[in-house]
Amino acid sequence: MHSSTSRLPELDFLRGLALLIVVVDHVSGSVVSHITLHTYALCDAAEAFVFLAGYSTATAWTTLAAYRDKAAARRWFIKRAWVIYRAFLFTAGLLLLASAVLRAFHIETPHTARDLQQLIASPATVLRDIVLLRRQPYLASVLPMYVLFALAAPVMVPLARERPWLLVALSFGLWAVAGTLYWYLPAALNNRWDFNPFAWQLVFVLGALARCQPVYQRIDSARFGRIAWLAALAIIASGAYYKLRIEPSTPGIMKRDLEWPRAVNFIALAWLVADLVRRGWIRHAAERAPWVGAIGRRSLQCFVAGTVVSLSADAVLARTTGGQHDVWLGLAADAVTILSVFAVASLASLPARALTSRLRKRLRL
């Protein structure tokens, strides 16, 4: 969810694709979600999005430090943390507002029903808990983790560049005790964090290391590069077999604390995607589908909008179908969801003056 002055089309494309998958995966009647990553792997698009955030964070830091200085980079990331925190508050408010509107039309939103009921019963307490990150409504719950990552960037990225092995040791050590540290996170009663930042920092750090250190290039050029490729393929195949034949639904606790099967499965997938990047396939895809890259370039705005769109689409679809699977309505919900996110990306990409001019022309019509 960070930007840099030097755009990488592959990064924007992959980030946009991951965001679209996150959005459709949260529409329970979605047809597209049946072919997305979580169906065939122990991990899902969340790992990809966090990894890419680490990569883009390192890119932004490197660019700022080179063209200005480290102090400017530190200030930028502190401001970035504030921007993400405000986005969290805005997203939480939008989700509760959308839930209230849908409820007025007798459309239930199970994911936010409890927060909405408690807000009606005790608004001051609920609002205070949201401000203090003790309560994180539905999909907004991922943003507090990014606030912490942005604040950690001034320490983490220099270590990734200058002392990578120390960063790896610290990151894996923190991941190992993440389950214990989780219970010290601020939380209201029955409102624990959906993402344990002490665990998920591992994926973020791996993304930063991929940007700062030529890990893939060194292993790929070595004699055992092919062995690493085959090992990654075997891990992916094993994960797919487990998901399709043994356990179709991965336990939620496995995601919250990023348990090792998810981490290993994602690292294997990331390895193969890195090979696709090296071969130029991802760049070619980015050139063929520039609208996906547009979403990646405006990932924060699109994520905020996507949370509300997916919540609304999920609730309306469930009400329309009575909880039954309907292919055509599911495809319609997918289309509305994807087009809505793209519309937000398009609007966010317009300069303020151009946007105002277009709105005036529309009003005249």
Automatic annotation (TrEMBL):
The chain crosses the membrane at residues 12-36, 48-67, 87-106, 138-157, 164-185, 197-212, 224-242, 327-352. The keyword Protein biosynthesis does not apply. It holds the Pfam family OpgC_C. Keywords: Membrane, Transmembrane, Transmembrane helix. This is OpgC domain-containing protein. It comes from Paraburkholderia guartelaensis. The keyword Transmembrane helix applies.
